[in-house]
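Obj.: predict assembly geometry.
Materials: sequence records (below).
Method: joint structure prediction, all chains together.
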Amino acid sequence: MVKRRFASIDIGQVHYWTAGEEHRGSAKPPLVLLHASPFSGRSLNALTEPMGQSRWAIAPDHLGQGDSCAPTLAEPPVEYFSDKMIAFFDALGIAAADLYGTHTGAHVAIDIAIRHPKRVRRLILDGVGLPNETLKNEYVAHLRERPPFDYTGAQMMWAFQTAQDLYLFFPYYDRDTVHRRKRDMGSPSDLHRRALELLRNLRTYHQAYIAAFEANPGGRKYPLIPQPVLYTVAAMDGSAAAFDQVAKMIANCTARRYPEGAIAGDYGAAAPMFRDWLDS
Amino acid sequence: MTTLTIERGFLDIAEGQIHFRAAGGDPRKAKKRPLVMFHGSPGSSKQLERLILAMAGSRPVMALDTLGMGDSSPPAREDADMTYFADAARRGLDWYGVTGQVDLLGHHTGARIATEFAIASPSRVGRVILDGMSAAPTEQAREYAKTLDKRHLIDQIGTQFFRAWNDLKDAYLFRPAHKRLAANVRPNGLPPLSLFHDHVVEVLKSYPTSHTAYRAAVLYDSPARLPLLKMPVLATCARHDSPFAALDEVARLVPGATKLVQPQDNAENLASDEEIRALGRVFGDWLDK
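Observations (raw structure tokens):
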């Protein structure tokens, strides 16, 4: 079972999802899993749970997302998120951890690995590629638009439609034929939870998202990662196109795509690959 | 003066986790009896935040989300009654190490949980505040209980988001909520937007699983249970709160109860910050008697 906890840092509480607490203090370093925007560590439960069978697995919510406290800056850079993550490590007594990061989480993980190298043993990067400058600028501009918040309940419609459109389009705000995605709509309970996570964080959900977009211009941080890296991507992930190119930019890189047929978020298929590499 | 802040946490029990909000220091190390609060339905301890802060200046306060509501796990059984929810709370406090005497404050559904906690573990409870306890369930209440399971409204087109917003709005504006007539108008508007929004969010969090505790509360046989309380009890209600008409009977049913009509007209989100602070002082003074 994945449990929920809070840890206190200087600016408030970080909420995290965890499995394998019985392995706390064991010889294996804990695994810290960092999620994609704009939701929460809940999105990694299907990975946190199997990884917790053999190690302490911890999936914190980014500040301003899920149930973690909000950042204290209006436009915090990625360094802010990674430094607060180190404060979270300190709060839990974690000297060094293995890191898994997907999308936003991968950009925070890269920054932690480069700027706090002693706190990271190994790094799994999932679903990051090379940024398209035009798309990035457009996406960030869109994220800066404030969602509605009024007595008509417009925010209810905004949150639910956004949760839906993340399934239907890429980017989710371009709802034309060109940007249509071919995939199943989320289940009722999944859409319910995702819309609620947006509604809880109407004023802050975008902050880690924007920081991630601005975190690694031109992919110039990839060559600076000092730790061994497992670089992976699912077949339908938007970043898959640059897979071979990015793999060459990372110094100490093991590049493995998700198993055949697995899509992003299919952690049942990916977990054994991650576990084997961490234990190798 | 130290600024009080609310911290959140989880208590582990066999069927999952109980989420809580707390302020005023560690209840395991307190010199004074900690105060444990239970919220009304549907909602969570989020709706008690202002009262927690109003009372945490003089004692540690913990407000638990009822199983199936807020961020707590669902109850283990669909037919669970109030004794189950009280037992779950006690098991959660045991796990956390709050094993000494506590005071209890329950609002509406929470008043039933506080009552059952106090009946089952009288030696663990100092004083009890029952805020908005009802009398015996009426036929109307039995009909209402049949409408509380809203799981079927959670769908791929977001029906529940529109429904939750409007149901809560109607609950503030009409009594009963579904009778939208001049004769049923409540004498108030809506709470401040942020409180109203947060309340809808907590209701939606609870949508899949809140009906079990809510139904058990609506059907609660208070005339049979209230006479079993053995400790000092404050029976209280705000004038415009829905169970106000039952206050006299509730006070009569509890042996030796003190009755208090609250100084402000409205309960919960409709009371102003100053009114909530004043209410916290009144409650705190009674607990310290």
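Conclusions so far: Chain B touches chain A at residues 7-10, 12, 16-17, 19, 71, 154-156, 158, 160-162, 164-166, 190, 193, 196-197, 200-201, 204-205, 207-208 (CB under 8 Å).
To do: check interface contacts against the pulldown list.
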